[in-house]
């Protein structure tokens, strides 16, 4: 039943990006969906063994390749979140609001 | 308002479609044997010298991906520093009707 | 933020142990769970505890931002130099330059250990630099 939980976390993140107007909440929804996908990869990589992939333990080991790939994915996710939050901060300094519909409306007015 | 109801219906449709496709992918049988694990258990200690298999992968067999990831970190740090320099000690000074 | 004496005391006593634990995860990355990225992030979280609890000025006197920038650039260039050392010794870019030694001797695993240390220093200094710069704007 673990796949149900991970699908639910991904859908919660996707709903947060679509439905909320506050820009910080949108970025946090993206981060939640990122965590759900990483958990998914690690869970399905662990079905083929019983213990951690370190030499010296007795039983069969799990697959080490998804874990090595997810290390890179986690670091890239952190970098994307940092840059997104800095962009939201610069938008707040210029327009003094965090509501995305307000920012869109005022940006169109500035453009005309 | 009519456009608000239309937006709510569109969001529900998108969420249901995503849930349907996720269910199709995640539900079935998944195999429990892995060739990479068999190869790694035999050969990783002689070829890289690390006892931890995950370290042997991301610093031994696939060290080039780790080089690319350090580049990503460097670019992200310099991007954050670049965007935050003009705002040091100057917040709430930019006005919209200036 | 408003300072209470319990926050001040705990952050001053706990931060060196967090830095030490991060360095332990770095140095033992090839035999137990851990490695470059995990140890680097734990070291950065030790610095972030000092920034949050003591203020930016006190942490800047210990870890100046200019020194962290130089350390990060030096670590990236050292990674490239380690790759070129593998190329010079005839094993390809980022190959193991000491691969003629037997499998159970100590210098065989030296390449993995050196790369772990370089990556840990780079990740730790990068993330604590982001945090220092974000906190200065308040």
Structure description:
The complex is a heterotrimer of chains A (112), B (98) and C (138). Chain A has 112 residues and is an all-alpha fold. Chain A is 75% helix and 0% strand. Chain A has a single domain (2-111), classed as Helix Hairpins, CATH 1.10.287.3510. Chain B has a domain at 34-86. Chain B has helices at residues 2-26, 35-47, 53-61, 63-84. In chain B, α3 packs across α4 (63-84). The radius of gyration of chain B is 25 Å and the shape is flat. Helix content of chain C is 72%, strand content 0%. Chain C has one domain (5-135). In chain C, α1 packs antiparallel against α2 (36-54) and α2 packs parallel to α5. Chain A binds chain B through residues 3, 6-7, 10-11, 14-15, 18-19, 40, 44, 47-49, 53-56, 61-65, 67-68, 71-72, 75-76, 79-80, 82-83, 86-87, 89-90, 93-96, 106, and chain B through 11, 14-15, 18-19, 22-23, 26-27, 30-34, 36-37, 40-41, 44-45, 51-54, 56-58, 62, 65-66, 69, 72-73, 75-76, 79-80, 83-84, 87, 91-92, 94, 96.
Task: Tag the structure with descriptive keywords.
heterotrimer, A: 112 residues, mainly alpha, Helix Hairpins, 4 helices, B: 98 residues, 70% helix, 0% strand, disordered C terminus
SSE arrangement:
The complex is a heterotrimer of chains A (112), B (98) and C (138).
Chain A (H helix, E strand, L loop, with lengths): L1 H18 L3 H23 L19 H31 L4 H12 L1
Helix pairs in contact in A: 1-2, 2-3
Chain B lengths: L1 H25 L8 H13 L5 H9 L1 H22 L14
Chain C lengths: L4 H23 L8 H19 L1 H7 L2 H24 L21 H26 L3
Helix pairs in contact in C: 1-2, 2-3, 2-5, 4-5
Low-confidence stretches of chain C: none
What is the CA-based Rg of chain C, rounded? 18 Å
State mean pLDDT of chain B (0 to 100 scale).
Answer: 82
Principal-axis shape of chain C: elongated
């Amino acid at each position: 039943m673990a796949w149900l939980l991970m699908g639910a976390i991904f859908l919660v993140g996707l709903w947060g990006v679509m439905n909320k107007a506050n820009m910080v909440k949108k970025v946090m929804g993206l981060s939640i969906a990122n965590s759900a996908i990483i958990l998914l990869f690690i869970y399905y990589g662990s079905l083929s063994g019983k213990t951690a992939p370190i030499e010296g333990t007795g039983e069969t080991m799990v697959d080490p390749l998804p874990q090595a790939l997810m290390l890179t994915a986690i670091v890239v996710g952190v970098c994307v979140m940092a840059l997104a939050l800095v962009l939201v901060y610069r938008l707040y300094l210029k327009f003094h609001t965090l509501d995305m519909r307000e920012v869109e409306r005022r940006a169109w007015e500035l453009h005309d | 308002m009519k456009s608000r109801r239309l937006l709510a219906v569109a969001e529900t449709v998108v969420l249901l479609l995503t849930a349907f496709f996720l269910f199709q992918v995640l539900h079935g049988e998944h195999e429990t044997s892995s060739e990479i694990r068999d190869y790694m258990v035999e050969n990783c200690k002689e070829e890289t010298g690390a006892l931890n298999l995950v370290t042997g992968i991301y610093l031994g067999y696939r060290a080039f991906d780790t080089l690319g990831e350090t580049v990503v970190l460097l670019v992200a740090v310099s991007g954050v520093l670049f965007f935050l320099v003009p705002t040091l000690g100057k917040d709430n000074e930019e006005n919209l009707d200036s | 933020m408003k300072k209470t004496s319990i926050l001040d005391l705990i952050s001053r006593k706990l931060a060196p142990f967090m830095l030490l634990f991060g360095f332990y995860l770095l140095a033992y990355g090839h035999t137990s769970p851990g490695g470059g990225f995990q140890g680097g992030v734990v070291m950065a979280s030790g610095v972030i505890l000092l920034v949050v609890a003591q203020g930016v000025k006190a942490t800047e006197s210990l870890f100046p931002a200019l020194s962290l920038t130089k350390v990060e650039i030096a670590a990236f260039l050292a990674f490239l130099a380690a790759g070129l050392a593998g190329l010079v010794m005839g094993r390809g870019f980022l190959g193991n330059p000491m691969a003629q030694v037997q499998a159970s001797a100590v210098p065989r695993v030296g390449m993995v250990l050196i790369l772990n240390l370089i990556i840990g220093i780079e990740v730790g200094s990068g993330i604590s630099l982001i945090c220092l710069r974000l906190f200065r704007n308040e």
